[in-house]
Specification:
By secondary structure, this protein is an alpha+beta fold. It is built from 16 helices and 30 strands. The protein starts with 20 loop residues before the first helix and ends with a helix. The chain binds adenosine-5'-triphosphate (ATP) and magnesium ion (3 copies). Its EC number is 6.1.1.15.
Length: about 550
């Protein structure tokens, strides 16, 4: 492609609202443009890289035995009412009416649509298991769209669904998908971890998230420094405790607002705070701090939680509800049931919290605006036990470290939740009606693209892994007004093109400095500069990632590139 004819609007300055590198660089390098908050257009360069990621995903899905289809983004409310999620999904679901006042949603996810489709077309065990996928824009009215492509309101997702006869068969589909996901993210060149995630209320116990390790990630993971063990600490740290000492108390007084409230006020505050996306509330009981942490996106995908807060908040004081509250903050998928086998730990917290909410007037008080990690050493209650950085890993290998991660993928054993609500059944080999068992598997394709930029950039721009880059070669003619430069560059461009190499040709009438700066910004792996020595048939080649450069005879270029 000739750059003079392409829409690549580069910028010298970072856009004012862009806080992180991937957002800054993708906008500055002319890959994407914001249309509204959390809504982006992909310009030609952006479209190309997005397609590269899509193609990797597509290949791995096909290999795993899933078949591509495309469902409608416009979804009738009836389906969501059947599953029960019309009332429980919350305000993240974009809802609209047609001219006849019929209700619709824009697809945030497609469990309902696919379940109705399969329910109506598959009747026999002979047609199971079935795996399908699509790559399509999803719509979620995120409370805080931010970080460019990382958290959009319209974004590209690959969503896959498996329909199985049994939980054993689901395990197999799940493992296939798990392997496909590992392949996808490895092929994207990402440093990632598959972490144990929170299964909430949605059925089977197994779910993993694929996390790209990055400082800008919104999740925190606990992982072993030697083995593969890793867990999202949102999975179970429903309670964090903090050692109380004089120092921490003094610190607290400096950084937080000590506050005494009545039970009703605490309850109101909790309700209010949760609605507003409250981060944490800390209670102090018997010299021990107990913290309930909630997350801003708690209502996402969440059934029980929404019902819970629609109910009377004062019921918080009951143990049942307290247990629920302890589970609610974590995981976008629903409350965690405090399991039987952690009675000691969980009961402790439940009891203390119940205590505080019952007796906040006199003995308990809480702090607001406390920032764990900053104000305290965090002891997260993870994987059903307390874990602290440096502790032995639960799998007995190595020690625990904490890191931030970007959730790029999520595999999930749904079990029979949707099939039951929506009556998706099949006849088994005895002719008996059985409920289908389902799994769902998502990859944030546009988010993955941004995560790649987070891991592949330097101070001058993006440094794409070569199979993700929009083009493999960037040909620059430094001064196209000079006939011998223009001729040689034209010729090289033609040759590379006809050899099937993806090549971008900067034929613009711009200063050399502008061309170099843009080229560094784009991050195309190999640059071929046609400049002063064009007359002798000599060009300069430079690798974007390593900075290695060399001079080459024109005749050697094609071989070198291949
Ligand atoms: P998050 O916790 O970041 O809100 P999620 O758990 O709500 O994500 P899923 O329902 O698991 O997301 O969707 C599957 C995948 O879609 C996620 O793993 C993520 O990569 C991607 N994704 C989800 N929300 C967004 C978004 N707002 N913008 C871009 N990608 C997203
Ligand atoms: Mg979400
Ligand atoms: Mg999540
Ligand atoms: Mg998820």
């Amino acid at each position: 492609m000739k750059q003079s004819q392409m829409l690549i609007p580069t910028l010298k300055e970072n856009p004012a609202d862009a806080e992180i590198k991937s957002h800054q660089l993708l906008v500055r390098a002319g890959y994407i443009r914001q249309i509204a908050s959390g809504v982006y257009s992909f310009l030609p360069l952006g479209r190309r890289v997005l397609r590269k990621v899509e193609d990797i995903v597509r290949e791995e899905m096909d290999k795993a035995g899933a078949h591509e289809l495309m469902m409608s983004a416009l979804q009738p409310a009836e389906l969501w009412k059947e599953s029960g999620r019309w009332n429980t999904y919350g305000s993240e679901l974009m809802r609209l009416h047609d001219r006849h006042e019929r209700e619709f949603a824009l697809g945030a996810t497609h469990e309902e649509v696919i379940t109705s489709l399969v329910r109506d077309s598959i009747k026999s065990y002979k047609r199971l298991p079935l795996m399908v996928y699509q790559i399509q824009n999803k719509f979620r009215d995120e409370k805080r769209p931010r970080f460019g492509l990382l958290r959009g309101r319209e974004f590209l997702m690959k969503d896959a669904y498996s329909f199985n006869e049994s939980f054993e068969s689901l395990d197999e589909s799940y493992d296939q998908m798990f392997r496909a996901y590992s392949n996808v993210f490895s092929r994207c060149g990402l440093d990632f971890r598959a972490v144990i995630a929170d299964s909430g209320q949605m059925g089977g116990k197994d779910t993993h998230e694929f996390m790209v390790l990055s400082e800008v990630g919104e999740d925190v993971i606990a992982y072993s420094d030697t083995s593969d063990y890793a867990a999202n600490i949102e999975m179970a740290p429903v309670v964090m405790t903090y050692e109380s000492s004089d120092e921490t108390e003094k610190e607290l007084e400096k950084t937080a607002t000590p506050d005494q409230r009545t039970m009703q006020e605490v309850a109101d505050y909790l309700g209010h705070g949760l609605a507003e996306g409250l981060k944490s509330i800390m209670f102090k009981v018997d010299e021990q701090f107990v913290m309930v942490v909630t997350r801003g996106d708690h209502e996402v995908n969440d059934i029980k939680l929404k019902n819970f807060y629609d109910a009377d908040i004062v019921e918080l004081a009951s143990e049942e509800d307290t247990r629920q509250l302890l589970g609610t903050g974590f995981g976008s998928l629903g409350p965690v049931n405090v399991p039987e086998d952690v009675e000691v730990v969980a009961d402790y917290a439940v009891e203390k919290l119940a205590n505080v909410t019952c007796g906040a007037n006199e003995e308990g008080y809480h702090y607001v605006n406390v920032n764990p990690g900053r104000d305290f050493k965090v002891k997260a209650y993870t994987d059903l036990r307390f874990i602290e950085e440096g502790d032995p890993s639960p799998d007995g290998q190595g020690n625990i470290k904490f890191a931030r991660g970007i959730e790029v993928g999520h595999v999930f054993k749904l079990g029979t939740f949707y099939a039951e609500n929506m009556n998706a059944t099949y006849l088994d080999d005895q002719g008996k009606s059985q409920t289908m068992v389902m799994g769902s598997y998502g990859i944030g394709v546009s988010r993955t693209l941004a995560a790649i930029v987070e891991q592949y950039h330097d101070e001058r721009g993006i440094t794409w892994p070569s199979h993700i880059a929009p083009y493999q070669v960037h040909v620059l003619s430094l001064n196209p007004k000079k006939e011998e430069q223009k001729e040689l560059a034209d010729e090289l461009y033609e040759q590379l093109q006809s050899t099937g190499i993806e090549v971008l040709y900067d034929d613009r009438k711009e200063r050399a400095g502008v061309k170099f700066a843009d080229s560094d910004l784009f991050g195309i792996p190999l640059r071929i500069t046609v400049g002063k020595r064009a007359g002798e048939g000599i060009v300069e080649v430079k690798e974007r990632q390593s900075g290695k450069q060399d001079e080459l005879e024109q005749t050697a270029v094609i071989d070198f590139v291949r």
